[in-house]
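#structure-requests
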Amino acid sequence: MTIIAPDLGVAHFDAANIRGLPERTLPFYHTKRFALPSRKVGLLLKESAPDIVYVVNPCCIPLLASYHTNIAGASRLKMRGENVVKLKIFLLISIILAVFSAGMYFAPYLAFTKSMAVFEPRDLIKITETLNGNMAPLMTTLIPIQILAIFPVLLFSFRRSKFIFYMSLIGLMLSILSLVVTVTIEVPIVTKIVEWTPSTLPNDWEVIRDRWISFHYYRITGGVGAVIFLLIGAMFNDNKNRRQRQMREE
């Protein structure tokens, strides 16, 4: 019996003669030493004239072979691991953006909406104009990006974690609810208010103001709710998976 292997200084093993080949390490894999294909392998095979050639590694030639690394399985695990990392990254990004978006809804409520009913028309117009000028450009960019950021989470979690998928889907729907309320109700009302003057104030200006306040609660609920459901998906998914693994083991 002849063993053709990397030359590690061993010439015999039991009844087998070991024919060494020049060995070397590979980039990013310095813990093992390998013998790369060479003409010497063919010469040694001709010299020993074996009845059977046994190759201990995956091989694409018609020989008796075995392998000790499940290449296909390892590749699938690697891809699965990469998808998990991507899922966590996108989930973190979506949570951060959702927090900022909810803050854009909640901050005006704390600073302005709670006291809106006591402002005189002149003050109401001025404050609304200032807030709209400061927040509109940022919200126009932030809110759509925040909604779009949830879609990669849905994509990577659909097969990996149904729990994250459904929590993120609820978060997406709540974010869209806030956006719809903002675009269809809040923005048109703000546009009207900033065009008012004390002399052109409509008779129903208080009704319009109160309508803005009422619907502002809806978009706060949607924005904060989106954050809550995204956080639930991120925080409790590992515990859920752990319980499922324990049940399978039992």
